[in-house]
Amino acid sequence: xxxxxxxxxxxxAGGSLxxxxxxxxxxxxxxxxxxxxxxxxxxxxGVALASHTGGTYYADAVKGRFTISRDNGKATAYLEMTNLKxxxxxxxxxxxxxxxxGTWDHLLHYGDWxxxxxxxxxx
Length: 123
What we know:
This protein has about 120 residues and is an all-beta fold. About 0% of the residues lie in helices and about 50% in strands. Strands 2, 4, 5, 6, 9, 10 and 11 form a 7-stranded mixed beta sheet that branches.
């Protein structure tokens, strides 16, 4: 099982980026995929989730600016990020949801974390 995140980079505030998460080794359309982010010294936090049934969930901090989607045929999840802010600077990870219960962003319910891709937003 592998999830590979890519698409990060340096962008000015107000700009946009699209992250991709390519999955392999499991039945992609049977699992929810989440995007998380982490900055040094802080806890990894949920950004968005695309469920395998089509539902989506977002952290309050990114609602209206980020859009999560998935292409089951390509076994890929995307995170379209617009109107980026310096506080969005982080390493972004994707992961497969393995357990349910509680909130969608419960870290312990996720596994098979990708290696992360760095997003840097300059002011």
